[in-house]
Amino acid sequence: MLFGVVNYSVVSKIVPLFSVPYKIQEKSTIRFIRVMSSIHNNRSTDNAYTSDDDPIPLLTPYKMGDFHLSHRIVLAPLTRNRSYNNVPQPHAALYYSQRATKGGLLIAEATGVSDTAQGYPDTPGIWTKEHVEAWKPIVDAVHQKGGIFFLQIWHVGRVSTYDFQPNGEAPISATDKGITPGLDGVEWSPPRRLRKDEIPAIINDFRLAARNAIEAGFDGVEIHGANGYLIEQFLKDQVNDRTDEYGGSLENRCRFALEIVEAVTNEIGSNRVGIRLSPYTDFMESIDSNPDALGLYMANALNKFNILYLHMIEPRLEGADDETPHRLLPTRKAFKNTFIAASGYNRSKGNRAIAENYADLVAFGRLFLANPDLPRRFELDAPLNKYDRNTFYSSDPIVGYTDYPFLEEA
Ligand SMILES: Cc1cc2nc3c(=O)[nH]c(=O)nc-3n(C[C@H](O)[C@H](O)[C@H](O)COP(=O)(O)O)c2cc1C
């Protein structure tokens, strides 16, 4: 086995496959679909999990704090640019409810905490009364299907341009070093380094956003500490060039993130707070010279706040389907509550990650975007719809958004 820490006790505790989450299927139908899908895919079905009598690790229940999840398949946060003028729209109710299952965890797309938090067109906000009211029917639609719904709260920092900022001002950041203009086809504007005395107001924006999210009905929030945005601009040593107590040492670079965690947990309770981190990625030129140390430091520091979950993005996942990744393992072992792994997962890799206790839950981005019934397809080992990159960020309220077919329609 790969890591010497493989824990198959997870597997032995797994309840029978067809017990909880989905409508009970005729076993013969399920067997038929599995056989057909293996033919369709020109491969044998997922080696370890072919028998009807075997539990599918991703389809097993899990208790995350007070939340009783019926399976381990999480909708990763996905920006879709369909919240016109930052206001969540009715079509999002259909989109999210299509992906909701009873006891399934959904993380809503990155949502701005303030008017300086913006860097892309038509991303949702949660800083005005209008935003809160607009989210309510979307949250209701998910709850009606029994889903558990967290909102990812976000500030882009320097990943922005003057056009997105109030009064055309410079975007704010930990630094005044900009992203290379032209990266990803955008003329990023040079940021303005936040003064130390301005930092408490930004932390307060996250606190208020969390309060607003709860008022809108969300079950909790995920603090977006990943993918090169404001929090990560503080965390990573190749971006953060501050000389005050928010820069330099690991402890100092993590201070801003941890002060946000503290403010948000004080506001809504630690049992409603998760955080997403990506120490290994280089998105938006946000790089750290020692990502192992950064992940581990954060995991240990987060334990003090007893937050609900830590959601970590893998370095690019490669290798065979039956391999479990390993890079996040020290962080996973250090963090005492729920651990979610994301990026590059498919059914086989997800099952491995759960079976080998590498993660408690696995978040799926592109596969869930294109397969509204992803948990059911994984249950049946059914073929998947392919995602269409061209419509990831387009603004149509239906095309590439709510029109991906369900299994019955495929
Ligand atoms: C269309 C799209 C939008 C995304 N938006 C967000 C986002 O709002 N917040 C975030 O943390 N990650 C975002 N991501 C990253 C995904 O959550 C996920 O980490 C990534 O897609 C890799 O996982 P996958 O291989 O399962 O797709 C986005 C990815 C895609 C493809």
Protein model, in words:
The chain contains 12 helices and 12 strands. It is of the alpha/beta class and 410 residues long. An 8-stranded parallel sheet has the order 3-12-11-10-9-8-5-4. The longest helix is centred in the middle third of the chain and has 19 residues, at 250-268. The chain is globular. The model is unreliable at 1-52 (pLDDT under 50). The structure holds flavin mononucleotide. Residues 76-79, 109-110, 152, 224, 226-227, 276, 313, 342-345, 364-367, 392 line the site of flavin mononucleotide. Pathway: Lipid metabolism; oxylipin biosynthesis. This is 12-oxophytodienoate reductase. Pfam families: Oxidored_FMN.
Number-wise, the strands total 12
Computed over alpha carbons, the radius of gyration is 21 Å
**Bound small molecules, which ones?**
flavin mononucleotide
Order of helices and strands: HHEEEHEHEEEHEHHEHEHEHEHH
Return residue spans where pLDDT drops below 50 for at least 5 consecutive residues.
1-52
In spatial order, strands of the major sheet run: 3-12-11-10-9-8-5-4
Mean pLDDT: 88
In terms of DSSP E residues, the strand content is 5-15%
The span between the termini is 38 Å
**Helix percentage:** 25-40%
Main sheet properties:
8 strands, parallel
Structural class: alpha/beta
Shape: globular
Q: What count of helical segments does DSSP give?
A: 12
Organism: Buddleja alternifolia
GO molecular function: 12-oxophytodienoate reductase activity; FMN binding
Pfam family, one: Oxidored_FMN
Pathway: Lipid metabolism; oxylipin biosynthesis
